[in-house]
Design a protein that fits this description.
The protein has about 210 residues and is α+β, with helices and mostly antiparallel strands. Helices cover about 40% and strands about 25% of the residues. It has helices spanning about 10-20, 35-45, 75-85, 105-115, 140-155, 175-185, 195-205; strands at about 20-25, 30-35, 55, 65-70, 115-120, 130-135, 160-165, 165-175. Helix 1 (about 10-20) packs across helix 2 (about 35-45) and helix 1 packs parallel to helix 4.
Amino acid sequence: MGRFRWSVNLAYAVGLITTDGSLSKDGRHIVLVSKDIEQINNFAKCLKITNKISLHTSNYNPSGKYYHIQFSNVELYRILIGLGLTPNKTRTLAALKIPDSYFADFLRGHLDGDGNISVVSHKESQYPQLRLRFCSASINHLEWMKSSVSKLYNISGGFISKPNKNTQYLIYAKADSIKLLELIYYYGVKYFLSRKYNYYLQKMGE
């Protein structure tokens, strides 16, 4: 695998690329875009890259700004292709070849990229419940994630919601969300998006 060998950092970076990243069609360039500068910095540290971080305007963010980093690395590009990522991956994304021992780190990157942690009131009991959501435009990808979580962690309570034709969510609630978040934020974990991690800690402490 050359310079890039499987590690918790590489798995986390792959999760970010899967959600907020893209592969150029030239066979060498990799891009990550995020509204969080911390996320871009974490990504750069994980992959040990020092490329310039630029600021782009965007209509999709209320502030109109997104951080952007692009770098060229043929070796990593080919690894990502071998894992199952492709240029224009939005709707073609499906199963990825992530080692079992690094799957939780991949999930943390996926959560930081296109997921969220929230508290909702149950329709019947009205008691607040922790909810974990992973988002993707590809239902095949979410079905693979759900199957992998069930196989690796014996968590089978997740379900897929389709609020519109462009977005699907893999959702875990109650005890399943807590168990999965404890796996994602294991003791000693180094890289994560602070605002999501701190929200998780806050809600677990209430």
